[in-house]
């Protein structure tokens, strides 16, 4: 109890019991009921950190109060969990391990909802700038869903309080939109899922806020996550084992000195938000099953700058890196075809964001409207200028920088093209 007691005999203990009890009673109660930290409420804004006694791993803090729960008109079809938060169909054991193959009509339903989900994500991303709160992003997503006669799938799913997940910097996934304004230098993942006419469409991307694309570490983790998803999609076709994408993802992440989160996995998606199969993002998993035409699922690698380990805030949703270093994620909903894969949530020619090259020391990197970074053009110019030293110098620069670390990827995105395409930790969560 933090205090030592010494008694010369049992009689001594009995005679001094009242004093002993008075000393130790308080410390006993304190050990059973730890003192509660009091949240400081900003008198000007009314904002506060709801978990003042919690040991955060990084600088991001929740900024409460959350805005009131937003509602969806009754005319729009709601998923089964909309009222009480319980997705009963997903919990039914008999269906959970059976991987559904969609018929042609169902495949069209998935194409439709995924196109709408892409539109909503693009609208949300176009509003990102320093000073905008994640609650404002949630409002935009919510209203854009309603415009498309769709229900935002996260809303009240296992009682999640918002319509979108917004994950900043060290937040891996499931960040709850709140009153925190975005700052220049942030990276943010926006995870959008729509429910439309009986089907769910799920995707997410990570974006640079303000001057974040001039931060080499931010670019490394974001572009590695983007590339990991591309590498995984290349494998998807009939006969692919669901454990195969994890090997490709982990190999590429390690080549960029990044790690892969093991707690969360890709998942089946169709009439249910989350269902079989599970698609781990790390190598040597124990995932079972293989892809067949008509199967629909997500791949959504979460890549960290530091350790792969995660922890969860007291809100029971927000997952963060255990070491406080940054994390990035990208996700597509994929349909297995007879001879390959269809990326149902593919980027459009005018989608915001897109790949950027690694920043050059002392040079700002900004994205142009055609999604090609200005640093890519500067890098090209630099290589051209190196011709004065001979072709060997140019070849050496290409080898060392892999064409200025991603130039080919940026160029492909600028042309509007899409790539067609447990170890010791087997406890997984769908994201």
Quick overview of this protein structure:
The chain is α+β, with helices and mostly antiparallel strands and 431 residues long. 31% of the residues lie in helices and 16% in strands.
Q: What is the number of beta strands? A: 16
Q: How large is the radius of gyration?
A: 25 Å
What's the helical proportion of residues? Answer: 25-40%
Give the ordered list of helices and strands.
HHHHHHEEEEEHHEEEEEEEEEEHHE
What does this 3D model show about the protein?
The chain is an alpha+beta fold and 431 residues long. The chain has helices at 10-15, 17-32, 88-91, 93-96, 104-126, 134-147, 216-233, 244-255, 374-385, 391-414, and strands at residues 151-152, 165-168, 171-173, 187-196, 199-208, 259-260, 264-268, 275-279, 296-299, 302-304, 310-312, 319-321, 327-329, 332-336, 341-343, 429-430. Strands 1, 2, 4 and 5 form a 4-stranded antiparallel beta sheet that branches. β7 (264-268) and β8 form a beta hairpin. The chain is globular and about 75 Å long. The two termini are 42 Å apart.
């Amino acid at each position: 109890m933090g205090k030592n007691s010494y008694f010369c005999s049992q009689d001594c203990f009995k005679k001094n019991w009242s004093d002993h009890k008075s000393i130790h009673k308080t410390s006993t109660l304190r050990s059973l009921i730890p003192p509660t930290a009091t949240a400081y409420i900003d008198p000007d804004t009314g904002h506060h950190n709801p978990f003042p006694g919690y040991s955060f791993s990084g600088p991001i803090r929740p900024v409460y109060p959350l805005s009131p729960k937003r509602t969806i008109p009754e005319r729009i079809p709601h998923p089964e969990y909309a009222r009480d938060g319980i997705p009963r169909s997903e919990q039914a054991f008999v269906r959970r391990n059976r991987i559904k193959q969609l018929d042609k009509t169902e495949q069209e339903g998935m194409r439709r909802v995924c196109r709408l989900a892409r539109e909503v994500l693009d609208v949300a991303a176009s509003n990102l700038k320093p000073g905008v709160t994640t609650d404002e992003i949630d409002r935009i997503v919510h209203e854009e869903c309603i415009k498309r006669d769709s229900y935002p799938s996260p809303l009240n799913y296992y009682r999640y309080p918002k319509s979108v997940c917004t994950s900043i910097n060290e937040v891996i996934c499931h960040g709850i939109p709140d009153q925190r304004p975005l700052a220049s230098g942030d990276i943010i993942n926006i995870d959008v899922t729509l429910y439309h006419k009986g089907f769910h469409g799920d995707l997410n991307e990570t974006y640079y806020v303000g001057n974040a694309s001039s931060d080499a570490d931010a670019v490394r983790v974001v572009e590695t996550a983007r590339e990991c998803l591309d590498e995984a999609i290349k494998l998807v076709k009939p006969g692919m084992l669901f454990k195969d994408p994890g090997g490709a993802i982990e190999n590429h992440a390690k080549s960029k000195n990044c790690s892969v989160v093991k707690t969360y996995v890709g998942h089946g998606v169709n009439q249910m938000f989350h269902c079989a199969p599970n698609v781990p993002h790390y190598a040597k998993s124990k995932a079972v099953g293989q892809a067949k035409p008509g199967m629909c699922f997500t791949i959504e690698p979460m890549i960290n700058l530091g350790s792969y380990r995660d922890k969860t805030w007291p809100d029971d949703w927000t997952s963060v890196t255990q070491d406080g270093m940054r994390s990035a994620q990208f996700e597509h909903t994929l349909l297995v075809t007879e001879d390959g894969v269809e990326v149902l949530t593919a980027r459009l020619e005018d989608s915001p964001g897109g790949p950027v090259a690694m920043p050059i020391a002392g040079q700002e990197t900004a994205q142009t409207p055609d999604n090609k970074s200005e640093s890519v053009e500067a890098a090209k110019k630099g290589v051209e200028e190196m011709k004065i030293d001979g072709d060997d110098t140019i070849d050496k620069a290409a080898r060392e920088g892999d064409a200025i670390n991603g130039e080919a990827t940026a160029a492909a995105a600028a042309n509007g093209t899409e790539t067609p395409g447990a170890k010791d930790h087997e406890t997984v969560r769908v994201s």
